[in-house]
Amino acid sequence: MRRIVLVTAALVVTAGGTGAAVPASADTGPAGAAAIAAQGIDWGECEVSGPGDPMNNAQCAQVEVPLDYSDPGGRKISIAVSRFRHTDEENYQGVLFVNPGGPGGSGLAYSPALARWIGGTGHADVAAKYDIIGFDPRGVGSSKPAITCDPHINDPIRPAYVPDSWREELAWVVKSKKYAQDCQEKFGWMLPHMRTTDAARDIDVIRAALGQEKISWYGFSYGTYFGATYATLFPERVKRMVMDGIVNPKNVWYKAQLEQDKAFERNIRAWFAWVAKYDSVYHLGTSERAVRAKYYEVLNASEKSPIGGEIGPAELSDIVLSAGYNTGYYIPFAQALSAWVNDEDPSGLLGWLNPGGEDNGFAVYLAVQAADARWPRHWARWHHDAAKLHRQGYEFATWGNVWFNAPIAFWPFNGGPALKLKGGESLPGMLLVQSTKDAATPVEGGLEMHKIFRSSRLVFEVGGKTHSNTLNGNACLDDKVAAYLDTGALPESRRGPDAYCEAVPALNDPDPTAVRLKAAGSGAGKDLPVGRP
User: Fold this and answer.
1) Is 467 an annotated catalytic residue?
2) Is 142 a catalytic residue?
3) Which residue, 63, 210, 470, 493, is most buried by CB atoms nearer than 10 A?
C-alpha cells in the first residue's frame, strides 16, 4: 500500500531533551499494560531547521523503549516525542496522540500542527483542552536509530515503471532485491521488530511515561490501522479515537496495493476530465480521453528526453499521482503540465520533483509492511497480478505501485501473520471518517473497520476524492470531529454509515477561473502532501 504523508512545512525537527527510561520490565503485552510508575519525561526545546518557530514552543524529548518486547531487558531504542501543551486548565482532557500515516511518516511536527488545523476550523477551544502528542514511530526521523538502507534509491532519473520487455522488468527486480539486501545488511537486527504491534506497544510506554491512564488518538491513513492496533491490544487505555481515511483490515497489505490501483485509475481520470472541463485555461484537450492521451504522450516522450533534464516517466508518474490523492493538487498540476506542453516551461513540474537523497520514510514503509503480514514470495505472482490489472485498463498506478512495494518480495524473512483486529467490550466509541472516492484507502475500508469496532460511528464524505479529508474545510466533517473530541458526542447509530456529509464543491472540484490558488493548496486545514506518496 503506497504511503501518504501529510507534512506541515518544509522543515526538519529533531527531539531535544532526553526521556527517562520506563522500566524495561513494564508489561506492554497484548493483555494490557501494567501500571507503570510515572517517572516523567525530561522535556527540552525542539531543534528546528527552518524559518521562525513552526513548532510554536512545543517541547521535545526521547523516550527509551525495548527493541523486542519479548525481551524487555535487552537492547533499547528510543522514540522521538513532542508535546504541544493545553491552555485550558479547567477543562483539561488529557493527551491526544496524532499520527500522519505512512507507515514511515514523521509526526514530530504534528503536535502544534494539529492544534493549528483544529483552530483553523473554528474550534481552537477544543484543541486547547489537550496536550497534543506528536511522535516519530520507531525507525522514523528523529527516533533512534532511524532506518536508512540506500539514500539514493529514489534519485532521479529512474527507469520507466511500465516494462516493455522482460529485460526492463528484470532491471527493476534486481534493483528491488538489492534494496532488500541493503536493509538486511544495515538493519537486519531491527527489521523483525518493526510490526505495527511493536509501535503500538511503544505508544503504551509513552502513555505511562506521561503519567496518563488513557489516551486519545487522531490517525490519518495508515494511522487508522495503527490506532486500531492499539485499541485491539489496549482497549482499556482508549479514551477517544478519530480515524480519517480508513485502512481496510481485510487487505493487509498485499491486496491493499491492488485495490489502490483500481481506485487511483478512477481518480486520475476524474482529474483528466476536470482538466478538460477547463480547456480554455489549460489547453490540454476538451475531453477526458484527449487529456489522458496528451498526458501519456508527454509521459512516453520523457523517457527519451526527460523534462527539464530531471523528470522521466517514473518521476512524472509520482508527481501526478498526488492529484489522485488530493484535489488541492488539481490546479497547480494542471498549470505545471500546461506550461510544459504549451510553452516548454518545465519549472512548474520541477518544483514538485522529489530530488532523492533520502530514504528513511521509504525504508520504514517497507519494513513495517513486510513485518506486519505475509506477502507473495514468488515474483511470478507479482508479475501476473500487475500484468492482469494493466491489461484490464488500470494503467496509471499499477506498475508504479509494484515497484514501490517490490523489495518486500525479497525481504529477509516472511512477515505476519497479520494481527486480527478486535473491538473489545471496554472500548468506547470511535469516530471513523471516510471519503467515498478516496483512492489511497478505498471506501470499503471504512465499512470493514466499522464492522469490527461495533462501538464506532462511521461518517461518509459523499463524493469526496481527497484522502483523509478532515480539518480541510468541510465544516460538516470538522464540526463532528470537534464535537467528539470535546465531549465524546457521536452520531446516532444506523445501519451502514451512521452519518453523511456532502463533499464541498469548491474544494472537491475547484474552479480555476474563480478561485485564487493559495501557496500550497486550499482549505483552512491541512497543508498538502508533498514528495513521493
Assistant:
1) yes
2) no
3) 470
